[in-house]
Structure formats: C-alpha cells, structure tokens
Amino acid sequence: MTRIKIGQVGLGRLGKVHAQNIVNAIPNAELWAVASIVEEELAYAKNELGVPYCYQSYTEMINQNDLDAVVIASPSGFHTVQISQALEKGLHVFSEKPIGLEMKSIENVVQNIESSPDLVFQLGFMRRFDHSYQYAKSLIEAGTLGELTSIRCYGIDPHVGLNDFISFARNATSGGIFLDMSIHDIDLVRWFSGAEFKSVYALGNHIAAPQLSEYSELETGACLAQLSNDVVVYLLAGRNAMHGYHVETELIGTRGMIRIGNAPEKNLVTLYDENGVVRPTSHHFPERFREAFINEIQSFVNAIIKQTPSTVTGVDGMKSTEVAIAMQQSFDEKKVIYL
Amino acid sequence: MTRIKIGQVGLGRLGKVHAQNIVNAIPNAELWAVASIVEEELAYAKNELGVPYCYQSYTEMINQNDLDAVVIASPSGFHTVQISQALEKGLHVFSEKPIGLEMKSIENVVQNIESSPDLVFQLGFMRRFDHSYQYAKSLIEAGTLGELTSIRCYGIDPHVGLNDFISFARNATSGGIFLDMSIHDIDLVRWFSGAEFKSVYALGNHIAAPQLSEYSELETGACLAQLSNDVVVYLLAGRNAMHGYHVETELIGTRGMIRIGNAPEKNLVTLYDENGVVRPTSHHFPERFREAFINEIQSFVNAIIKQTPSTVTGVDGMKSTEVAIAMQQSFDEKKVIYL
Amino acid sequence: MTRIKIGQVGLGRLGKVHAQNIVNAIPNAELWAVASIVEEELAYAKNELGVPYCYQSYTEMINQNDLDAVVIASPSGFHTVQISQALEKGLHVFSEKPIGLEMKSIENVVQNIESSPDLVFQLGFMRRFDHSYQYAKSLIEAGTLGELTSIRCYGIDPHVGLNDFISFARNATSGGIFLDMSIHDIDLVRWFSGAEFKSVYALGNHIAAPQLSEYSELETGACLAQLSNDVVVYLLAGRNAMHGYHVETELIGTRGMIRIGNAPEKNLVTLYDENGVVRPTSHHFPERFREAFINEIQSFVNAIIKQTPSTVTGVDGMKSTEVAIAMQQSFDEKKVIYL
Amino acid sequence: MTRIKIGQVGLGRLGKVHAQNIVNAIPNAELWAVASIVEEELAYAKNELGVPYCYQSYTEMINQNDLDAVVIASPSGFHTVQISQALEKGLHVFSEKPIGLEMKSIENVVQNIESSPDLVFQLGFMRRFDHSYQYAKSLIEAGTLGELTSIRCYGIDPHVGLNDFISFARNATSGGIFLDMSIHDIDLVRWFSGAEFKSVYALGNHIAAPQLSEYSELETGACLAQLSNDVVVYLLAGRNAMHGYHVETELIGTRGMIRIGNAPEKNLVTLYDENGVVRPTSHHFPERFREAFINEIQSFVNAIIKQTPSTVTGVDGMKSTEVAIAMQQSFDEKKVIYL
C-alpha cells in the first residue's frame, strides 16, 4: 500500500485534530514530521502520536525530509509564504483557511498554485466534506430544489468560548468576525450556488459582549448580499450560541427548501425530561465536523495518490477572502459594497 | 339560534373543563343548571360561570328543570345510574368515561341507551375529537398506511401528579391502572383498527413509586395484546412522565407508520438553550386535549340539534371496559386472557 | 349574558373566517349585520350563518342598526374612512390590517382613534393571539432569552397560491410584497423587542415567478434592518413555499434562542413513509392561525365588555406601515433608508 | 506502529463491510488474508482490497499464515467451530453474531473462550459501538434517567429488503425473526439494564407478507418481557419499514426518558417540500451503523494491542441467544416462558 508521507506545521487546537486523524484514521498516509515553535506541541507529537521527525522550523522540515506533502495549520499570517515554499520544494499542500489575510499576497500564492498543476493544493473548507453538506449538494444537483432563490447561513460559536475570545481580542487583532467566521459560509454559498457575490451590506452589534466594542470586534455580524444570478443571501455570524455550535445553512429553491443543521443534533438521542423533549447538541467544531475533518484529509491524500484534481482550490480561497473583506468594509463604511 | 339547555353533574377538575367550555366556547348551548354535593363547586358555577340553577341533587336537577341534555362528570360509580335516570326523563346524555365499573350494570345501561334511539348518548372519549387523532384517522381511511399490522399506545401521566395519586391511593380504591388509564387507549385501538381484542397479557411494576405496592396499585402497567385481525397491540400506562403528559399512539401499516404525539409538543415553539434543542411539552390533559374537550361537547350538541347519531356509543364504553377488566385479570392471574 | 352586536363589512376569504368565528365560537358576541357589495357574500351570510340584517352599503349598516361594534374586512383602501365613520357613530372598531395605505390618511385615522378613548379600537395583527407567539412572548418577558440580539422573520405564502397571485398582479396593484406581507413581521418585531426600526435595506428577486417582473412585483423580498437598540433584524417574504404556509420567527438573545414555526407542523402527527420521517404542515393562513383568529375577536369583544384597553393599537398600525413603506423605498432606490 | 494481521472468513454483505473498514479506516490493522468458498469474493478481496493471501478454506488460512487474529463473518452455523479452531491456534477472535445456533455448542465455545483469557474474543454486537448508543449509556451511568422502569426496542428492516427475505425463506431456514433480529435488542436490554430476562411472551403476524406463513416465518414479531429487576421490556421486530431501517431503543427511568433513533435520520438535513417537513432516513444497516462497524473492529484491534479485556463477551452471546430461543418457544407454544 502506498503511504503518503506528510509533514505538518502547527499543532494548535485544529492542528491536533488533523495530526490525530492522519495517525488514527487514514491508513494510506503517515505523519512523518511536524514543525512547531511550541515545545509542548512537539512533545505531544513525539510521545502521543509517535511522529518520527520533529522540527522547530518549517523550512528545516521541508528541506530535510523526504516528504510527499505538507499540512499547514499555522497562524493565518504564515499561510501564503508556507504554501509557496512547499510548492517550490515540489510538495503537495493542504492549507487551513484562510488562504491569506490580504489580497495582494493571496493573488501571488494563487498564481504559484496554478503554476504547479501537478501538485495537489487543497484549502481547509472542511464543511464541503461533511456528509450532511454533501447530501444537500447531491439533492441540489439532482434538481430536488429546482433553481435556488435564497440562501441563509448561520455560523455561531458556542457561548462557552466567548470569554476566551474576549481575552484573545484584548491582546491581539483578529481579522474581524466576517474574515474569521463568515468565510466558511461564503465558501458554502459559492459552492452550492455556483455563482459569485455581487453586493454585500453588513451590520452588527455586541449586545451579548459589550466589552468587544473596545477592541473593535463584533459579537454578532450580519450581512445581506445578492449573487450574480440574483439569489438573495443572508449571513449571520455570532460568538454566543447558548446551545452549542450552531452552523446552519438554508437553501430555498423554486421547488423546495433544505436546512442543514437546523438543529445541530449531537446524535440520534432524544431526551424527554423536565425541560421538555430535548435533542442534545454538538458543542464545538471538532465534534460537529469530526468526520468532515477526516474526510478532507483523506480526500487530499487520495487526490495525491490517484493524481486527481483538488476539490477546494486556491481560487476558492481567494474569492471567499475577497467577499469577507468587502463585508468588513461595508460594516466599517456603513454602505452597500458592490464587488 | 337554537340553544341546547344543559344540566351538568359534577364540577371536579374535568367537570370544570366541560362547564367552562359550554359557557365560553359553544354558542349553541347554555349551561342552564348544575348539580354537585360540593358547596364550592356550586358557588363557582353561580359566580364565575353565571349558571342560573344550582342543585345539590342530580335527581332534583333533572326533575325540576326544562333541560334538553345532561353532562355527567360525577365519580365513575354513579355513571350507570345517572345515565339511566336521564334517559328515562327523555334527556340527551353526555357521560364521562368509564361508562361504568362492572360489566353487569354496564350491560343494563347499554340496553337502556339502545332502547332510546331518539336520544343522543355520547361517551367522553375525547381523544377521538383531537385534531391530530382525526387527521391520523383520515390518513388511515385514505389508505395511506395500507393495512394495519401493529399498534402501540402510551398513556403516561405527568410526574407532577404522582404524589397526589399516591395520596389518593392511600385512601381510596381506583379501578387500577388499566381501567383508569388504558381504557382511553383501548378505545383508540378499537376506533383505528375497527377490530376487537382477542387476547391480552399484562405486566407491571412500581419501581418509580414503591409505596404503591402497599395499595395494590401499579406505577407502570404494560400489555401485549392481539386483535381479531391478528394486529399486534402494545399498551403502556404510567404515572411518572418527567416531561409532562405523554399520550402517544403509533400505527404501523403495510405501507407506512404514523405516530401521534411522539413528542407532546406544547405548541410551535422550539427553544435552543443550554439543555440543547428543546420542544416544550403539554403538561396535563386539559392542556393537551383543550380543543378536543370543546369539540366533543360541540359534537354532542350538534348531534342533538341535527338529530344525527352519536359518534361514541354505549357499546364503545362497554367493550373498552371489558378489555380493561381482562387486562387487570391477566396481571392478577399472571396469564394470557382470551376474550 | 351580555352579547355584543357586531356589524361586519367584507366577506371575502378573511372576512368569512371572522364571520364564522363570531357565529360559531364566540358566545358573547353575535353577528347582527353584514355589509357587502357582493351578492353571494350577502346570501352566504343570510343562509349559512343566519345573519339577521344584510346591507349593500356600509354606511347604511352603521346608520340603521343598533350595533355595538364593527368588524372591517373590506379592501385595504377603505379602512381609514370606514374606521373614522364607525368611531363617529360611537362604535367599537376591529379593523383588518393594514390600517391604511399611505401615511397622511393613517395619521388622521390614528388621531380619530386617540380622540375616542372610550371606544375599543383593535387592528388585525392576529399573530399576537396565536398560542405559540404568546408563549414565546411570555418566555421573553420571563427573561429566558436574556437581552435580544437578533431577530429573523419569515413569511412565505404557499406555492399553491402563486398562480392566483400572478393573475391578481396582472390586473391590479398590490402594495408590494413588503406592505402586503412583511407588515405582519414588522409588527412582531416591534411587539417582541419593544423597540422601533432605525434603518432598513431591502433586496429581492422573482426567480420563482419571472412573470412578476412585468408587474413590478417580487416573489422574494428580503430586508436587513437594525432597531433603535441595535438589534439586528432579517425579514424574508416570499410567495412560493412548496411545503405550505411558512411563518417563522426567530429570536436570539444573550441567553438562548427561540424559533416559532421552525416547521409549521399541522398537528402532532408524524408520518414515516417512503419519503422519510415527515411532519405534515399547515397549508394556508386560516389553518395555521385558526385559533388566533378566534382569540383576536374574542379579545376584542372582551375588551368592549370589560372596558379594558386594546392590545393592538392604531399606532401599531401606523408604525408598521411606515417601516414597510421604507422597505419598498429602499428596494426601489437601492440604498439604506434611515427612519 | 504495530499492525495487527487479520485473516477474515466470509465476504458476504456484512463481511465486505468489515473487510473494507479494516483496509480503509484502521491504520493499526491490516487485512492479511481472507477465506471464502465464493470465487467472486476472493477476487474482490484480491483486486479491490489488495489482500495478499486468499484461501478457499478457513482451516488452511489459519494454518498457513502468521496471523494475529481472525474476523469471522461466515454463515451462523459455522461460528462455534471456527471460533474454537482459531482459539486453538492462539488467535484473537472477532465473530459476527449470533455466537451459535443452539445452546449446547454455544456453551462449549464459551468454555473455550473462557479457557483462553489471554486471547481477545469479541462478538459483533456493533450497536454498542454506535455514538448514539454510547451517549445513551453514558447518560444512564450518570444517573440522568434515575432507575430504569421500562425498555422498548424496535428493529425493523427496510421494506426494500422484504422480497429478498421472502425468496430466502422459500429456500432456506432462518433462525426465525427473534433469533435473527431481536437478538441485537436483547443484547441492548442486557447492556443498558445490567439485568437478565425473567420471562418472555411473544406474538406475531405476517399481515404485510402473507406468503411468509407458508415458510413458518413472521413479518412482525413482538414480545413482552420482564427483567429480574422487574423492568418491563417490549421488543418489536419487523421486516417492512417503508421509511428505511428502523432501529429504535427507548429507556424510561424514574427521572426521564431517552429514545435512540426515534427517527433514523440520515444526517442533519431537513427537506421542506410538497410532502411536508421531511427528515431523510438511513436506509439499511451499513448506513445506519457505518461508524459503529468501524469502531467495533477498532476496539477489537486496540484490545489486542493494549491487552485489555473484550467489551462484548462470549457470555453476552450465550445469554442473548438463550432469550431469543425462549421467545421463539413462547410464540410456538402460545404461553409465557420463564427463564
């Protein structure tokens, strides 16, 4: 059996998910090396996951090892550079989203990606690999919904993480709620509709976390948009879902409507207790998208082995970032932005 | 507009529901008189409902008033006698279930009912008048389920009433869980299937209320039965639903399955909170069957005005009691009873 | 028993609902007279409902009869004049929404209403009288949701009525989708939040009914708004729900989320068939809001008898119309409108 | 990384599921050899799964290969012999259920298993490894339900397989619906309750497939049972669920109720279409228990590597078979059987 040798950079919360999946769930890959500047992360990789080679430097890792591919799960600011470095070394690349933070460097890295058609590049929009989303996509492709008329996407992080985010925002600058969170939904809209965004108008508030106003952050961000084909789109991002991790997508078509994650049920259990009839919920992204994270890396590895094209391209990363930036601009300037 | 003059006996919990409905929701009826041995009940009728004539004696009420009909909501032990008295006076009769407590007097009263074909007699199986049950019946009649193969009926009283029942059981003798509670489900099985019970086998326990064993009462009673047409039936009665008032009926047919009250949702509200995704529930029978109680009396009044036959007959009362008694016997004697 | 004598003008689809409810479900009111220019409607009232007095002229009706109150269910253009006429005659007034079509005459009629504080005036925002909406309101008032942060309202008419609307639009001018349909949701937002609209931005399309573009009508209308207290609001109106009549309201607060009508379940029946697990749905507004229509007239009659203030005022009608007009303007002028 | 070398016998429908999982989803195992008398199955293993060693004979396979463990997915009649043979060769054993067909040989094989405490033996009750079932178990262990009072288990195969079963029954003898299907539910009852069956009473019919009566098979089999701790149990097995593969378990306790698979939702998609609000369903066991099948083999492999005890023992297989046989006897003899 061919086994793809992977080197991964970054072993934070999401990085750990990828590393564990490569080791425990993907027989035709192996986690051959990791790079991190965090001592504990390297110790974890070595001791818990049995990774043979551990580096403090990404460059060193890709120079010294006989790798087939890299998985980039480092902070967003490093993505474009690390992608380009890996491509130069002839390595296949899986990179977490966003592909980058500003358009100029993103355009450059997309050019690099397109100049290496023999190397697989895949961006980490894992929702596309979730069974529910794939089932929804198949219904749309089968014509079950007719033509799309309206899309609604909610991405609301669990309340339990709110204080952590407030602490983070006190000390650092995030890309803002639209670039951080809505970007996944922007990608879904493009994927489901096959169309591009034409205009965006964004609003927001921080009623649930007034402190955020000091750090120029929103707790709730909302956007009304229209696509090139006139479909109406509503995007809501938030940081305070009491019931867990609420990612929901609604697709209204001329012949029916679909909701994915209307309720983020944890499993098939229903509890009847003093609260009423209760469906327990997924509480965070690793739980909700557990299988999707496995599937996306498996898909990346299979694309390398079978030499098939990637399913989430650099252009997907560029386009979604462009829309997210326009949403932030709309909010900042209090006006409709046309793309 | 014709307005049917009603005299009602009994103004306990269920009696109050009927009295209020006659006054507030049924324009073509009026609550002309009430009879009760409880002083407060008569005061309530006079002051809150504006009932013109109040009696301590049922006999006096039906003798002295120019009534069209009676509503009997007195303790079960009085039903057969009061029904026969009213019929003798030429009054239409609506009686709460059960029609009686033992077969001999029930057979007599059914004979009296059948000897008065011009008088409307209706028994209080209100579930038949619930929108959900009527919708289910219409689906069955339309053939949506094909032929029935299996029926499951749950009737579980809310936990909040358990202590009251334990107190009641300490001081009095109920008919037992099957005669008290399963009788509604027995009627539903007969109504939905159009068939009669062939055999019953009953079990039970009082794990949730061990004190009940002292009073020879069950908290949970279960019965596996078979109908004349081979349909398999499972009946579960209980006194301890933590989530409210759980009345559920399942009908499996050769072409599909229906569940009525799978979750006893209070309304169309869904609450997403720290418990998960919650459907609040109906908490007691007046809430769950609020409309059904109005509809059954409206149906009774309309039958009188339009001279149409009753929809829930004395025979329905007799047959369901017969089955409930057999279930109790099966439990007592630990064997299958054939009817 | 006091019985309020009602005269009703208009017996179209909605008018019939009111007339039937007054006759069949509200014992302390009677439908004493009706006025209509449609012969069949008068015949219906006389023959089916037994209404004693029938007029072709509204003015004649309110002049010649000893009425207590009027119910106005005539075309929207007549509302303001008929309300003022009735108030002048000293009659209590229930009027269907909208209170009027343009702001000048609405302001006048609101002044007339406020000059008659002894007369009950109630506007037909029946959703406020629906059990589910009232339950949601009680949860909000109990603080279950904390402070509101975001509201979403959907009002989507059933597909089965789309062709009728297209025919109507061919021959007549509606007020547009926002004034026709969103007005109910605008009222709900004001009712639930206790706040007023600050800004609106509207979009739309007619992908599901391209013919509507010829008549300057939308099939889908969407609006992103913000309230005076910063709450974010999304309103979606449509004319093509394949699954029935979809009225849904979502309230997100700092401590939880509520959805009312997430799925417009017809009743408590669940059908398991070759399509999957199916909840049958309400198919039109008389079905979905059957009880609410009874409750709102009952509430109006009770307010008259008990001399209590109205629950849906002229100002509620004026404010909601003002917002709906601003939404249409936003759509026409493609810009954010500040109120 | 240690990789457990597995030899598998039987590559029918369920065998294929196991073989694919070992190859595609379990990095610390490899499918080293297979045995089958069906030529196509061996070709499939060789060509599609890349299995190195293929045998026509089970004995030959376990004699000639340096295996660590066997997976037995052969017809039920071979299980006891093949288990004992493998144990003799010092191999760890995973066997599909049932452990055997009659009590004598089962008792023998259980003795063999218990005489080899260093070898892992695991029986294929995969439901225990399903996330929903594991979550339910954790709730019970946490005391969320209080003490159990009543359990209900449904196992209804999809209608689409009914004709295949009829053909099968024409030519062969199954163990009957209780031994074939209810055995999974019997195991769940034992697992959840920690108690043993005390009495069983079974009924059945073949209304949905009258032909089955000729082959002494049931389409619907039902059983009312009581456990040693007085818990009431209802088991329903069927072969004709129109909506898919219906496996449901209900646990009622003194403090709440749980349903697992109340509706066998395929995923998080809800479809709103002309049928109503639809949850698409799982259509067969490989779909519903996809993850559970992976988890049970992963658990077996991990138990070998970590030298931990098995989670589903030979005794579990023996006890569940004993109850299933009693249910069949109860049906045949039309009486209550006490165990």
UniProtKB/TrEMBL annotation, chains A, B, C, D:
One of its GO terms (molecular function) is oxidoreductase activity. The keyword Oxidoreductase applies. InterPro entries: Gfo/Idh/MocA-like_OxRdtase_N (IPR000683), GFO_IDH_MocA-like_dom (IPR055170), NAD(P)-bd_dom_sf (IPR036291). Pfam families: GFO_IDH_MocA, GFO_IDH_MocA_C3. Keywords: Oxidoreductase. GO terms for cellular component: cytoplasm. GO terms for biological process: NADPH regeneration. Residues 4-119 form the Gfo/Idh/MocA-like oxidoreductase N-terminal domain. It comes from the Bacteria. Residues 133-259 form the GFO/IDH/MocA-like oxidoreductase domain. Coiled coil: none annotated. Belongs to the Gfo/Idh/MocA family. This is Inositol 2-dehydrogenase. It comes from Staphylococcus lutrae.
